[in-house]
């Protein structure tokens, strides 16, 4: 522990203690939070099953920064480096296309054995794993997946999702922590459809078939993720947020909220407390939209800050799984992972450093003057000193020191990749 950081923390600790916040207890609580780091930031969402397949499903990655991972071993090395610079103990989120096998298989043939190397790596590193069926970038995803009106196509995707759930349950059982299996499909229409009911009925029935097999919640939980914006589905998205909200409530599964899948003027964090009085739980994908679902690298902006504060202030962390979902190839991909995850953790820390009970008491008695005055004063409190102390406490670099490590990794490793 460097002396300047320790001294700054001591002063910050005293200042927060004066308003009833125990920073030591806060950091202990923050250390228990797991953020799921998305593997697809490391290779531009290509995976290793069909690496030459063009991205489809309304997904696009900008940029061509050198050093993209092209093998599972390279991607794991990049994740290792990123995780070594993010305080705490976390998880990694895999898509089905990130198999590590020499077998030539299709999506309707995946099995736990095709991900054994990922599980072994996770065990060695003490990590958890989450999972996602990959219902895009495939010849059979061109005209719809689970909502397709072609029985053969729909059957293919139902089988894929069924197998994905088994892989996810395998992850949870082997790693002794819950794996969230998040289902997202790109189905929809570019222009106005006449029949909006039939595709959604087909999707509902297909999902019911996918979820027929029951698994232990301790090993695997299903989640469904809606969308608003998507290239090629501007006029109609079959699996919209409203559809999946209803499905999650009636099937007792998780509802996934992606911060980029709503209208830019919506406050995503406000949806947490609207859903959780009724729902089983949330899968949260932290992203940063700019005008639409553009999946920019997460920063500590107002939207991200509100997400962290809302989860903490309303005691929702036990019912929420937090994951990252962005992909940017215009900058160093490892740095992008670190920036996004650290920013998300900072938003949670900001929430934890608030005198929450004091503010709630003021609010409940109608003292809105105190509520506003205190929340505004908190914005200039020494949050940064607490964050830097936490980083060093967790044996990761504080400040921008981590960037030096990423730059060194880039020179020694990333620039050597072809």
UniProtKB/TrEMBL annotation:
GO terms for cellular component: cytoplasm. Mn(2+) binds at residues 261, 293, 295. Its cofactor is Mn(2+). It catalyses: L-rhamnopyranose = L-rhamnulose. Binds 1 Mn(2+) ion per subunit. Pathway: Carbohydrate degradation; L-rhamnose degradation; glycerone phosphate from L-rhamnose: step 1/3. PANTHER family: L-RHAMNOSE ISOMERASE (PTHR30268:SF0). Belongs to the rhamnose isomerase family. This is L-rhamnose isomerase.
């Amino acid at each position: 522990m460097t002396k300047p950081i320790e001294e700054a923390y001591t002063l910050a600790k005293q200042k927060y203690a004066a308003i009833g916040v125990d920073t030591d207890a806060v950091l202990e609580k923050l250390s228990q939070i797991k953020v799921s780091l998305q593997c697809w930031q490391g290779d531009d969402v290509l995976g290793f099953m069909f690496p030459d397949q063009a991205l489809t499903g309304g997904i696009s990655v900008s940029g061509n920064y050198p050093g993209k991972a092209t093998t599972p071993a390279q991607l794991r090395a990049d994740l290792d480096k990123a995780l070594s610079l993010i305080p705490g103990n976390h998880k990694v989120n895999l898509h089905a296309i990130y198999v590590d096998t020499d077998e030539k298989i299709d999506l309707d043939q995946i099995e736990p054995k095709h991900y054994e190397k990922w599980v072994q790596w996770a065990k060695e590193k003490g990590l958890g794993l989450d999972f996602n069926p990959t219902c895009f970038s495939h010849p059979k995803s061109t005209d719809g997946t689970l909502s397709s009106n072609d029985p053969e196509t729909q059957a293919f995707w139902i089988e894929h999702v069924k197998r994905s759930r088994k892989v996810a349950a395998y992850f949870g059982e082997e790693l002794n922590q819950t794996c969230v299996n998040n289902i997202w499909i790109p189905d929809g229409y570019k222009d106005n459809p006449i029949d909006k009911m039939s595709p959604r009925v087909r999707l509902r029935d297909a999902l019911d078939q996918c979820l027929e097999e029951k698994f232990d919640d301790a090993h695997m939980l299903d989640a469904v993720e809606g969308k608003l914006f998507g290239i090629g589905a501007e006029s109609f998205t079959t699996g919209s947020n409203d559809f999946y909200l209803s499905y999650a409530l009636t099937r007792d599964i998780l509802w996934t909220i992606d911060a980029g899948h709503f209208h830019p003027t919506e406050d995503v964090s406000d949806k947490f407390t609207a859903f959780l009085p009724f729902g089983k739980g949330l899968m949260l994908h932290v992203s940063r939209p700019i005008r639409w679902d553009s999946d920019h690298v997460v920063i500590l902006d107002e939207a991200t800050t509100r997400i962290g504060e809302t989860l903490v202030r309303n005691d929702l962390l036990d019912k929420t799984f937090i994951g990252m979902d962005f992909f940017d190839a215009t900058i160093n991909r490892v740095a992008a992972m670190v920036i996004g995850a650290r920013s998300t953790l900072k938003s949670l820390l900001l929430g934890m450093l608030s005198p929450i009970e004091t503010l709630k008491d003021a609010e409940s008695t109608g003292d809105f003057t105190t509520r506003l005055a205190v929340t505004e004063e908190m914005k200039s409190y020494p949050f940064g000193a607490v964050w830097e102390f936490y980083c060093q406490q967790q044996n990761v670099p504080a400040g921008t020191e981590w960037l030096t490590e990423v730059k060194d990794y880039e020179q020694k490793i990333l620039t050597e990749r072809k």
